[in-house]
């Protein structure tokens, strides 16, 4: 089971978890659900190079 580090959503469906993203920032691993991955990616594109994606 994974917990989204952005919205706190929990997912235990393996098929759904495959669509989650992992980002490493400052040596810490963050997990983002499918929805947050999309939104986070969109906001990242405007600011930083998407090196973690
Ligand atoms: Zn989320």
Main sheet: strand order: 1-2
Number of strands: 4
Spatial extent as radius of gyration = 11 Å
Which geometry do the CA atoms define?
globular
**Low-pLDDT sequence parts:** none
Individual helix count: 2
Largest β-sheet summary: 2 strands, antiparallel
Helix content: 25-40%
Order of helical and strand elements: EEHEEH
List the ions, cofactors and other small molecules found in this model. zinc ion
pLDDT averaged residue by residue: 85
Q: How many angstroms does the end-to-end distance come to?
A: 22 Å
Q: What structural category arises from helix and sheet content? A: alpha+beta
What proportion strand?
A: 25-35%
Brief overview:
Helix content is 34%, strand content 26%.
Tell me about this structure.
This protein is of the alpha+beta class and 53 residues long. The protein has one domain (2-47). Helices cover 34% and strands 26% of the residues. It has helices spanning 14-17, 34-47, and strands at residues 2-3, 10-11, 21-25, 28-32. The chain has a two-stranded antiparallel ribbon with strand order 1-2. The longest helix has 14 residues, at 34-47. The protein is globular, with a radius of gyration of 11 Å. The mean pLDDT is 85. The protein binds zinc ion (ZN). Zinc ion (ZN) binds at residues 4, 6-7, 9, 32-33, 35-36.
Any key phrases for this structure?
single chain; 53 residues; alpha+beta; two-stranded antiparallel sheet; 4 strands; 34% helix; binds zinc ion
